[in-house]
Amino acid sequence: MKIELNGAPLETSATTVDALLSEAGYDGAVVATARNGDFVPRAARAGEALREGDRIEILAPMKGG
Amino acid sequence: MRSFYGTDLPNGLMLGTALYPSPAILADAFRRSGAAVATVSLRRESGQDRAGQDFWTLIQGLGVHVLPNTAGCHSVKEAVTTAHMAREVFGTKWVKLEVIGEEDTLQPDVFALVEAARILSEDGFQVFPYCTEDLVVADRLLRAGCEVLMPWGAPIGSGQGLNNIFGLRAMRAHFPDVPLVIDAGLGLPSQAAQAMEIGYDAVLLNTAVAKAGDPVAMAEAFALAIRAGQLAAQAGPMEPRDMAAPSTPVIGQAFLT
After folding, report:
1. How many other C-beta atoms lie within 10 A of the C-beta of residue A4?
2. Closest partner residue to A64 among B41, B84, B88, by Cβ?
3. Which of B52, B79, B193, B220 could, after both became Cys, cross-link B229 (CB 3.0–4.6 A)?
4. What percent of chain B has pLDDT over 90?
């Protein structure tokens, strides 16, 4: 299905947020996830199903002021 | 020094982690200054780029308190979601709540700020709101659950110092028991000293250190100024007066004309 990952279009075979993280190479990374603007806690990723057109954000620690 | 949600800090320096010439200089700035709080953020990163992971390892190695921000958020929803994501990644209930309302000045949208602060406080966050020196907004933030206030000194990154010293003094006087932090706008250590002299508990700065010619030396300069200002506040500054008053005793002075 087609989704948007961090603002860029992506064709994915993943069906959950958890599977998308693995597919996109985030295994072992400290990141936080959101689906369509709503926070998806780590524990909920495996049960969070993806749908066509979803906007997924995967955010990592970054410098800040 | 007042505590921040029950946490006592060894000094009044909160330091940002952006804009340094290198990660090594960032780490040295923290070590040399003894800054006890580091602000951090969350941003997009691809699965192949692990810069964020390396950054987080570096920050963890500093042994400081981490204060995640919601920089760049313009709405309640964005800020609340970002705060939740930050809490999970950084493992802290602290959040520097920024809801930007105006692009030229990066002035906070105080209406959205109060609403986001209420939602987050009810959800167990310990909110450090980036606000203005408006007393009514400050009161609303406290009623929303905030136990710390962070008024701006001047617009973020402007280096102008304490633009409204009257308003900041009034805030200190009006909320004597609330920990107050000057967040943003400082350019020089003397401005940080001034903030501490009028009774503020800490200053939060980034650009003034990171963009200095020698960020490590500037970080130490700020730490010294903050300590000096804090000591001065504790020592009880004299009241200014309009006319001169001789300090050397007049009694016993020789008549030599």
Report:
1. 14
2. B41
3. B193
4. 94
3-class SS of residue B137:
helix
In terms of residue numbers, what domain contains A28? 2-59
What is the share, in percent, of chain B residues with pLDDT greater than 70? 100
Q: pTM for the complete prediction?
A: 0.95
Q: Which residue from A minimizes the CA distance to B15? A: A65
Task: Classify B181 as helix, strand or coil.
Answer: strand
Active site residue B96: yes
Strand B94-97 versus strand B126-131 pairing type: parallel
ipTM: 0.96
Assess if residue A14 is contained within a domain. Answer: yes
Enumerate the residues of chain B whose CB falls inside 8 A of the CB of residue A17. none
Question: Distance from A62 to chain B by nearest Cα, in Å?
Answer: 5
Read off the CATH number of the domain in which A48 is found.
3.10.20.30
Tokens 């709080």: give the residue: B37
Half-sphere exposure of B52 (CA within 13 A, CB side): 24
> How many domains does the structure of chain A reveal?
1
Q: B189-232 pLDDT, tens per residue?
A: 999 999 999 999 999 999 999 999 999 999 999 999 999 999 99
Q: What is the mean pLDDT of residues B155-169?
A: 96
